[in-house]
Amino acid sequence: MVFMMFFGVGYMMLALYGYLIREWRTLQLVISVPTILFLSYWWLIPESPRWLLAVGRKEEAERIIREYGYVNNVPVPDDIFSESWNPMKMGKTKKMDKIKHNEEKGTMLDLFRLPNMRKKTLILFYNWFVNTLIYYGLAFNTSNLGGSDYFNCFLAGAVEIPAYALGLFIMGTERMGRRWSMFYTMVIGGITCVAAAFVPPCGGTLWIGIILATISKFSVTCSFGMVYVFSAELFPTPLRSTGVGMCSMCARIGGILAPQLLLMSKIWAKLPAVVFGVACILAGIFILPLPETRGKKLPETLEEGERFGKKPEKGPEKVEEATTNPMEAIVVN
């Protein structure tokens, strides 16, 4: 959530660069060339030890964790890498035994193979799609708010920093958590988006429309930051990268459609904002069936991922008898 605040910083810098550099080819070079520095991340950023363990690359995980211990002056026990400690080696139920795939290496198909995982995946796909759709829809629509395009763009970027800060705070509270934080921010974003469409962009009502659009952008930005965290916590370790990557792909579809949907204003000037707002409200409602992840043990295996947020079919006494691994019993309960 903190590093996403720098996305807002880049947003504000884009408005400043656009104001100072009016020739679009030069502007494109100025904002594109610095990305070459990202190539250095190949050597600077280590691989995730949790993912390395999930795919059986134990030696690399051990080396990286010991480097962490050395840098932070924290001793690493010798037995922490034993087979009994590895969470990827937990047992399977009879129902899960029917799934014929490698438990340690999840594939894209595993997102849809089981009913509970499939439900969570489809809800997240739609949520990412809508978040990006309305995020870029509002960004591309700043010219229609009235006033200076550059100021509106700068303001849209400035609200992102407090938006991510608010998201960081509310999603960590016991009262709100991840799920209700997502619900409220998306519903508020959708309502204010629709309301802003019915404010005339002229005269004394100009600032009312800008304020409503800013609140909508603030809320959607807050939700956009939280959906990254929420999604990563819902997917089990073997599917975490695949799941978030697929969610991001759905988000790009929303980004592609956003400027095209703005063309619906030729049919009715308020239609794009109404479509964005209604889709955002529905996404907030659809988030409610998902399980809360705040303070919960996150799923480490495909089996745990299917169980996570699913009501147990057996009573507590029967479940306790059916499980021989105490760690597995905790996960089931």
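Above is the first protein from milestone M3; the second protein from the same milestone is given next.
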Amino acid sequence: METRSAKRRKLRNPNHSSENNTGEDRITDLPDAILHHILFLLPIKLVVQTSILSKRWRTLWHTLPDLDFTSIVPSGTRVKKIGSLNNLGNGSVITRILSLRDKLSDVRSLRFDACMSFSGLQALIRSAVRLGVQELDIRVETSDIFNFPRSLITHDCLRVLKVKACPSFRLPPSRIVRSGFQTLQTLSLSDVYLDKQSSLRDMFSDCSFPQLKKLHLKHCDDLIHLRVGCLVLEELVLKKCSSLQGLEIFSPRLVTLKVSSCFDGFSVTDTWVDINTPRLHTLVWVDNPITSNNCLQNLVCLHEATIGFVLTNLYVDAKKFQSGSPSFLSGLSHAVSLTLEHKFVQIISKNNSLVAILFNPFVKLNSLELQTSEVTDLASVLMVCPMIHTLIIKITYSHKREKRWGRLLLDLLNSRTEQYWDTKAKDLEPLLHHLKVVKIQGFSEDHIKLVEFLLQHGKVLQDLILGLEINNSSDCHRHEKLKSRIMGLSRSSLDTKLAFH
């Protein structure tokens, strides 16, 4: 049997015929960097199994710069047999694997999801720091709340840090944080126990995080006040910080801001927002209670904004809405594209004077997305947005509605809807002279009067795209009839194109 070395000698011989190269092992002869890239694409369990291929492969995976143990065991799964392939996700096994690596074989990224003790976690992180880890993604389950590992704070190679803990972990004091994290660019913290640090007004500053570009905070239930002032920060995500009462953001390079399910809607004290971010491009503000005092300034580069509020107390929220929402939306006056979620549309549609106040500042708006269950709620909003070119309507529709109301009652409602839109033709005339693209998702025969109105009065309408809901074969048959009916409607513009999805 021909050995591999003999085959290599034949390859080096220029007179060797190509027909004898059928057993050539080209993969093993590839440089380590290429083999590392190939192994990175495989689950870690398969990577370990490659060690039986040959002498070179036996230790090759020990030098793999990117280690991902999250594919081994599902989150929260406890393991018993240490050392087997099925237990590579166990903390002690990961620590043992790291200890086998040479100091010259650095770890570029390490991801793991494991159940372990705090001492085991500390040992694992010390091993990762010793190997110069640059990206660390920790998802860990412990028996109790643990302290943030101090060895990470002063680690001068760390670029990306993501920590998610169950039940939670404690942040170190701000004075300790300021002594480290000088090279960190991405920070994601989830399930943080703040204890006596409910006010983080000086932690996320340029002194503590001079190179931080991305900051994600999730499930910080004890957080009451937050101030973010990192000068190079580009992305900030806050999610499920339900006790938040005050938020200050002063990051001149911030491009993306997403805040969802935050703020204390039952707080007896005022809640407030103060945002000054001149480079902000995208704002997502959804599932938050209405805050009492809002100051949004210098959002001159804002392009996309998505707004939606949660109602906790109708009486209190009505008062907050009258005072807080105009000041909030006025700060978004430079937005080019605006999306309003269902509940927000439902509130403002009941008060025409308030709608005019809310939308008066939007001088650049040319794209508007509205989410609603009743299309008649939209008219009051559309009247004060006369310059938009693109309108997207997402309708939440229940198929049980037709069965419950009956065909006769639906016909009566459609008749009233037709009369409703006819009465709005004059008020919506400025809009109909600018509107070019309309997309309606969740369209049904209940909304055909709206489509008829748009086709008859849309002077420059170019595209009308209707998204039909199909759940069964009977829907297909009914929708085919609906399509034929719509295609037969008269159009104000001969350039209007109809499309169905």
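Note on the second protein: Residues 16-20, 74-89, 398-413 have pLDDT under 50 and may be disordered.
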